Amino acid sequence: MNALARAASAEWMKLRSVRSTWWFAGGALLTMLLVAVLEADDTARFLLKEGRPVEPVSSVLDAMEWVQLILGSFGMLAVTAEYATRSIVVTLACTPSRTRLLLAKTAVVGAAVFAAGGLIAVLGTVAGAPQLQRYWEFDTAQVTGRILSMAAHLALIAVLALGLGTLIRRSAGTLSVLFVVVFVLPIALQGIATSLNAEFLNTVAGFMPGPAGKRFMAGEPAFGLVLTAWAATAVAAGVWVMRKRDA
Amino acid sequence: MITLQGLTKRYGGKTAVDDLTLELAPGTVTGFLGPNGAGKSTTMRVILGLDAPTSGSALIGGRRYADLDRPLRTIGALLDAKAVHPARSGRDHLRAMALSQAIPLSRVEEVLALTGMAAAARRRAGTYSLGMSQRLGIAGALLGDPQVLMLDEPVNGLDPDGVRWIRTLLRSLAAEGRTVFISSHLMSEMERTADRLIVLGQGRLIADEPMEGLVAGAGVRVRGPRLGPLADVLPAARWTGTDELTVTGHTTEQIGRRAHELGLVLYELRPVESSLEESYMRLTANSVEYGAQA
Lengths: 247, 294
Ligand SMILES: Nc1ncnc2c1ncn2[C@@H]1O[C@H](COP(=O)(O)OP(=O)(O)OP(=O)(O)O)[C@@H](O)[C@H]1O
Ligand SMILES: [Mg+2]
Prior knowledge:
The complex is a heterodimer of chains A (247) and B (294).
Chain A: H1 3-16, H2 19-38, H3 40-50, H4 58-85, H5 88-94, H6 98-132, H7 140-168, H8 171-196, H9 199-206, H10 209-217, H11 221-244
Chain B: E1 2-11, E2 14-24, E3 29-33, H1 40-47, E4 55-60, E5 75-78, H2 90-100, H3 106-114, H4 130-142, E6 148-152, H5 160-175, E7 179-183, H6 187-193, E8 196-201, E9 204-210, H7 211-215, E10 217-223, H8 228-233, E11 237-241, E12 244-247, H9 252-261, E13 268-273, H10 276-284
Parallel strand pairs in B: 3-7, 3-8, 5-6, 6-7
Antiparallel strand pairs in B: 1-2, 1-4, 8-9, 10-12, 10-13, 11-12
The structure holds adenosine-5'-triphosphate (ATP) and magnesium ion (MG).
Residues 40-41, 152 of chain B line the site of magnesium ion.
């Protein structure tokens, strides 16, 4: 087994051997089910009033706002929990290459969140179906595509948080920055755009991780690349900083 | 084998390790001593590649830590026993370490048994006592069956049984030709475990000697009710108590004869060794940074 695969298998062992991992998965699922069911009718009626089609995943997309924060925190903890407990010392003794370590963490967190996120999206769709099926137009290929892009979106947000966590090292600080980058900054930019009449700021806001992810999930694959660029940049910055800095 | 060459580590303006050059040989237990803040842990962190040296180098068998392929198979280390995720069981902690080195998981059970942690292996590490954490850390250091073992204050928190166990273990590992490097503040324990001592003071090397060099004969202890005349004729005599002299450079025979000539009554006349503690205190007297103000 090569060095990266060894590091990844150790990271996977670490993830599944703490209970908090399962709490995050359960919390994300519960949030998804609650929102997908409770919002189903409202969402469907709102879409119809706007003259937009109702999709089987319409209320699941609403739930993404919350689920992405939960799974983002999960991704972040893969790094910040190690700094908080100082177990990063043992981890780096086992895998001294910072690049390899962060690639392994990225792969494991990304794959775990992709799988869990996809499953959660499917279950959310099923849970919302009794209410939505009156309104929806079911297109298997479209639903499959949506669910895959939601899973990818969640995985990329988790990896973005992992990269930010590596830069910042503390959970509270990382969560604040993640929240600002995903939610606050786009809204702030849009606000400034309106008051200054500067349309390009709206465009910039559209390329922030939150809005880009939304358009990705709504069926614009190009914005998946934008989100991927954000996540990759965060991890690359994390690698760079970790290589320079004492553990 | 560990080789440090002009190793210097500064944190901001603070020099934690200052131009340290040394070589640790296989087959010996080397003790690493020095007051709080002397730079012992920092030296070990640099050896493990956790902190980058400001200048100089630290090599293990001629290679930097970062260049070792499966490092735990070359050097096992314990720096901080509490540096474990509290929610993970001791067994899973070791399993993750083993997977990262392609060490078979059966080895995890071996080191758990060896360190007496088998019964507690399923429990979350956060529930371990200090001594149990220390044992888990030692299990991790032994996991890769390494040629070099480096432990920062390993006996800290161990019960007397554990202290004796680790002493025997370290001695037998050195006897197998491995390099053992341990720091400790427990002089009596060091005296019984180490072959060679390295003493650091404010980041600088202040002594690097075989154990015999530091605990060699310190003189003859003489006790009696009226030793004034003896002190007058023996310039190498020091008062070490109200009725006690310590004399260097003379044998017990010479001193006994002298006392007889002076007509003195003696209660005690015996050669004494200076303890490691005494030698250590003497060596580090000028480099204690964080001492209590008497
Ligand atoms: N990350 C750091 N940032 C700033 N200063 C540091 C850092 N790590 C260590 N130091 C300083 O370096 C010096 C050496 O510390 P070190 O922990 O190596 O001492 P030590 O010999 O292990 O002491 P002790 O016996 O108390 O364990 C101390 O003055 C310490 O404050
Ligand atoms: Mg220390």
